[in-house]
Amino acid sequence: MERSVIRLSHCQKEIFCFSVPEDCPSCGEVLRGNRLQEAPVSLPSPFTDGHKSSCCLLVAPAHNNPGREFDGTSDLHTGISNTKGVVYNYTRGGVLRDQSGWERCVSVPLVRPDMFHLLAQWDQYLDHFSDGSMWDPAWHRFDEEHQNCFTYCLHFINSVLATEGRSSLSRETFTHSFILPRMRRVSKYTTLYDHIQRHQYYMVDRQEDRQEDKQEDRAV
């Protein structure tokens, strides 16, 4: 089970670790008790359980990735969750409806919580779209470049946007606006996590004015 990463501040340093150390790794002062400048903060993980994330685009390591890890080099797989957490994903065998296997993935919310009319029809849209001949291997062959899991997801998203009277999104726009910001966060988090596993902590000079990327949490 993945451990939580915490951040604490001491002697103008920010220290990232899994648990508060006995002594500050920078100055050696005892940390336990009330010697911290502020309470330790748990960093939010960039990963989510796709089966508990309704109406989202999900990104997970592909099944041919031996450890199913986000290592920055292995293939990724994408899917769309319905309101019940079933993940629809396009493969060589057609569209699968997975009820497990997406417990650690990156999610992109596709529907705002106040869009009740769309939430009520989401499952019907997804089922109807997935039953189309375009995703039936008897009619169209899966292709790594032009007819793949992301093609399926983007076509579905654009079909919903068209139904809502909104403009479609290009592959480049969607990727740069919604996928890449999250994958950069994954890369930073996994690098930090691996460093802490090897060295017990990671330490940097404290930044007084830290700005968070708020764009990545907005829905399409």
Automatic annotation (TrEMBL):
Residues 3-31 form the MKRN2 opposite strand protein-like N-terminal domain. Residues 40-196 form the MKRN2 opposite strand protein-like C-terminal domain. InterPro entries: MKRN2OS-like, MKRN2OS-like_C, MKRN2OS-like_N. Transmembrane segments: none annotated. It comes from Seriola lalandi dorsalis. This is MKRN2 opposite strand, tandem duplicate 2.
